[in-house]
Structure formats: C-alpha cells, structure tokens
Amino acid sequence: MKIKDIVNRDIVTLTNCEHEPIHIPGSIQPHGFLLGLTADWKIDFVTANTEVFTGLSYTQIIGKDFSEVFGNAAQKNIEEYFLRDESQFVLPIETELLENKYQLTIHKSNDIYVLEAEPQFCEKEKLPDVYSQTIQFVAHMNNTRSLQELCAFVADGIQQVTGYDRVMIYRFDEDYNGEVFAENCREDLEPFLGLHYPHTDIPPQARELYLKNQLRLIVDLDYDPVPVFTTDDQDNKNLDLSLSILRSTSPIHVQYLKNMGVGATLTISLIHKDRLWGLIACHHYSAKNISPEIRLAAKLQGQFITSQIDLRQSTEEYQVARRTSLALEKLTGLDLPLGHEQFQTLVDSPYLLRLCNAAGVSISVGGVIYKNGITPDEDEIKNIVTAITNHTKEQTFTTKKLSGDFPQLNHHTDVAGVIFHALGSDDHIIWYRPQTISEIKWAGDPAKAIIKDSKGLHPRNSFNVWKQIVKNQSSTWLQPEINSAANYAHALHKQIIMLMLREEEEKYRSQSLVLKETNSELENINWISTHDLQEPLRKIQMIISKLLTEIDDVPAASVLESLQRVSKSANRMQILLEDILKYTRIKYTKDALQKINMNFIMESTLDEMKDVISENNVVIECESLPEIHGINFLMKQLFSNLLQNSIKYASAERDLVIKVTASQEPEINIYSNNVYCYWITFSDNGIGFDQQYADSIFKIFTRLHNQDEYKGSGVGLALCKKIMQTCGGNIRAEGKVGEGAAITVYFPCDPEDSLF
C-alpha cells in the first residue's frame, strides 16, 4: 500500500496570495492528532504525530478499521455520540483511546468524518467559575446602553474567562477594513483601541472560513506543522479542513502575528445577517491553550454580541428616526400653493433638510431647478443627474463619496454625499452633504500589508500608527434618513403628477377656447374674402366673353390662345375658392374627409407643374400610391408644396431626381406613438439639411438659408404640416447635408378599420 502526504506546497506570491488555498493545508497544529474516517470506519487520513500520543505510528494506523486499532469500546462510544446529535457536532466527546483520555471534536468533511483528538484538559475545577461568570455576564449585559459599551463588556468578560493578554472586538466596514471597536488588555501593553487594519490583512478566503468555522485557535505560533498522510489511491486526493480546530495556519498569517509579537491566538467570528460583521481577536504573548469548555464559553459571549447588534443599533438610531419622522410629518402638513411657486416654498422649508439631516437640497421640476443650502450650481447638478442615470436604471441612488463613484464629475468641492430620487420624466430631488475631513489611524501603512523583497514574500513588520487624512467623503447616511427621503420623494412625485394634470387641464381648456375663437374668425374672414373675390372674377369672365365675340376684329391668333388660358385659370380659381368656402364651413370635422386616389392627385399635380419640371430638368420616379381619407384640394397643395420644395433646394452639381414611394402596411410611428396605415415618402438628391433641424423646418417662416441663396417665404412646409394635422396624420423629415432629403407623410387608418 502506497502512502503519501497531502501537504500543500504551492508557492504563495503577490499575485496569488489572495487565493491561497488555506482550507486544504494538508497539515495540522501539533497539540493534537487527526483521523479521517470513511463511512465504513476505515482510517483513510492520519497525521504524522500519532505516535507521540498513542504510541502507534501513522503507518501502523492508516488503511485499517478504527475498531482494529482503537477497540470496539471507543468505536461504540463515538457511534452513540453520532446517534445523539448527528446533524451538528458542537460539544467535544470525552473518550479513551489506547488507555489515554482524549476530547474528540468531530465534524464531517464531504464524505469523510474528521476526528480531532486533544489530550483531556485538567481544568475541570475551573468550570464552575466559568459558568458563574457567564451567568453574571448575561445578568449585567442589559445594563449597557450602546453597542460599543456591550462590546467593551464582552471584551472584559472574555479576558476574564480565557486569561488572554489582549481581547479585541474587531468590526468591519463595508469594504472589510477592520477597526478595533472595543478592547481589554494587560496594563503594560500598548492599547490598540481605535486602530484600523486594511482589508488585505484578512483576505477573502480567510473571511469565508470565518463564516464556516466560528472558532479558530492557534496554540503556539512557533509550531512545526504536522503533515496529513493518506493512501495513494487517487489523483489530487485531499481533505478539506475548513471546520477543523487543529487546521494548520497560512505561513503568511503566522509571520504576520509573529511580527506583532504574538505567541498564541483565539479568534471568534461575529456573524450578522449572514455576513462577517467582525471578530473577537484574543492575543497572548506566549504559547497558550484553553479547554473546549472555555472555548465554548467565549464563543457564547460572542454570540451575545451578534444577537444584540440589531437591537443596539436600532436604539442608537431611534432618535434619528424620531427626528426624521417629525420632519416628514411637518412637510406633508404644509399648506402649499397649487402652482410652481410651491417648490420654492418647499425647498426653503427647514424641514426638508431635517428630513435626512442634509446640508442642501435641490428639486428639478419641468426643467426648473429650485435649491437651498449647500448645493452645486445648476450645471453641476445636471452633470450629477446624468452620471447617476447613466450608472443605474434604479429610481434611487445613495452615496457618501460622490467623487469616488463618479471621478469624471467636476463636482462641487463642498459636496460629497447625495441621496437621489427620480420623480418621473426628467424631474428629481437630491439631498446633499458636505465632505467630512477625518483622520484614520492605521496599524501600519495599509499599502504595505504584503511586502516582497530579496528574501521573498512576507507580511509587514511595522505596526506603528500610520495616519491617513480622508477627504471627499461625507458622513454615512443612516437607514432612517434614507427611508424618510424615500417616503417624501414618493409623496412629492404624487404632488408633481397632480400639478401636471391640473396644468394639462388648464392648457386644454385654454386651447379649446382659442381654437373656437380662431375657427369662428377664420370662417368669417374666408367667407368675406371669397365673397369679395367672386365679383371681380365674374367681371373678368364677362370681358373675356365680350372679347371672344369680337375676335374677328382682333386677328392675332396668339391673343385668342392667351385669353382662353386666362378664362381657364379664372374658372379654376373660382372652383378653388368655392372649395375653400365649403371646407371652412365644415369646421374640420371627420365629415370633411373623403376617400381619395392619390395617383389621380399626383397626375393632376404633375400636369400643373409640367413647365417647372421641364425647365429644371427634374426626373420624377413615382410608384403606385394608395387610397387615403383626406381632402382633395389640400392633397393637391400638399403634393405641390413637397415637389416645389425639392426643386427649390436642388443641388447645382447634379440633375434632380425625386422618388415618390409608398406603403400600405400599418405601423406604429415612433415619433407620435400612433398607428398609421399609409405613408408616402418624397425623397430627393438635393442639398439636404442637418438632421438637428428636422423639426424646425416645419415651423412657419423658418428658413435654413438666406433669401439671396434660395427664394421663398418659409411657409411651404409649415402648410404641409398643417394639412397633415387637419387630416389626422403626421409628417417627418430626414436629411443629410450634401446628399438629399426625404419627407414622409403618414395617413390614418380608414374609419371603418378596427386596429385597436
């Protein structure tokens, strides 16, 4: 049978020390020995020091049945222990192995039962004192008023029970940097209270083990690791010692403690809400071991801390919560005006700052920013909002170090902390806090936690106080402050919605009145103008008719042709005016819309514009157009204006080509969020335009070029937009400078269609 040790001999470097596999060291501390048993009681793992404790070498033990080596009585004793509490082995079991008494700590590692044997302690006479001290501790625990007082009380109690030279309660921040939160030590020792330690002192894999195994003991830092042996029956065979009491320690951590002058340690995990909240770190300046009973008593006192964290923190935050609740009540009870002036009144209220103990606040509603207190200027506020909204899709964001989260911001130097709440659309509210310059005392330079020199990799050996000045960071926002801000932001959002609805109602009411008056006025003006124009047109026709009757006296054939064209034009003008009169009297109702074949409209328009088209060498490519619901003469005006617009802005470098394309497929227009069933596009290869002017070109009298370059009044496209609005449609333009433009008109679905 081949036997091999499983000692992990991987070289630890600066690049991999944070991933050192400390849970599988393949060795233990020498104050006990370890056996690894399979489910059928075969000894599959054994440490090299069994001969020291049992008189049998590991080669005599490995691979054999447990009862064959240690006897049936010992196996039966352990089996009864399994039956008593198989799910969790908390208390050690006292048993006799080869005529020597041991205390066995048992746990399961994957499929292996791990037995760790330590010689039985002879400190039973101290147990009554331990129990008495623990009972007294519980009785006086409730007399402490704060979490820090409780931690100091626990440090004193554990120091009395265990006898360690120094007991520290070590608390982590959100980044796992540690602070000595409470301490009890020998009078001749330099206190560490208030010192900070960088997160690199306890790397992630060590913190993971502290979550799994809540008690860690190093009896003598000068120990020589004892290797674990196993049968060589598979590749990469190993034993996870995460839950082990005897597990050997990382050589880097051993050297770190030696550099501090420490000889032995006891570490107890403080776990709160499934997170490593802190540690109870016990240091002794010589070798020291304690019995399992005393270990358990110390662990119990640590659990008293974790059980009280919520209660003590809640007590400390109660006054904050009471003040913020009072401010929220005052704010919601304010009698504010109904207009936008309410927001200035609101930000001027001291209760808005007291709500979350902020130094400044800003509210943005409808593009207007109202602010009070210590705040950035308006441009910086907009930059902050942009950075936050680009960073997260959430409606809220809280930070105490704005420059750390968004280094690209050239933010206000006095502002470091913010609570941001979106209020719909582009509206928001932000509370601000200034930076709090503070001094942190580190136990050594945190940047030199691990050092590499000519001798290799080792932890720092200097723990002299290293001071750091922290800037650009505000005090921490407490949970009651965050909650109050969220509650009021929700109420403010509702208030803004109500204001918007009221304003929209007023706007529509006002627009309705204006529209009614405008329609009435237009009807009167159109009626008068068309009535007055009919009389001179009739006179023109009479004169032309008379001239035609005397044509024999006027032999010029050209005069006859001209008069005929004048007559034809006059008739067409009369028809147009009659159509306008009919249209204005219909008052833009759906009854005005008729089914129109747009191919006929195009043919008629091209016929009227044939001279202009010919003179400018325009090529027009038109595909089949749909039937739509519209107004006949308005469609002619629409097509005429769109064609004239393309001709007006033709490029001098090439012949103008106008393409007219169409579709009858229903689509949702992304610009208006409406469904349209038909669209027609007029695209050309003219001079084009910059897309940023795609909306402004439809405004009346808007021109992108001066009068000397291109003639026109700026009414054409505005009229096209008005025509499409009248027909319930839409119009959009797309352009590229030097390449051309495309204008698309969208028509609504047939009244009888039921797409919704």
TrEMBL record:
In the N-terminal section; belongs to the phytochrome family. It catalyses: ATP + protein L-histidine = ADP + protein N-phospho-L-histidine. The keyword Transferase applies. InterPro entries: GAF, GAF-like_dom_sf, HATPase_C_sf, HATPase_dom, His_kinase_dom, HisK_dim/P_dom, HisK_dim/P_sf, PAS-like_dom_sf. Residues 528-751 form the Histidine kinase domain. This is histidine kinase. It is an enzyme of class 2 (transferase). Residues 146-303 form the Phytochrome chromophore attachment site domain.
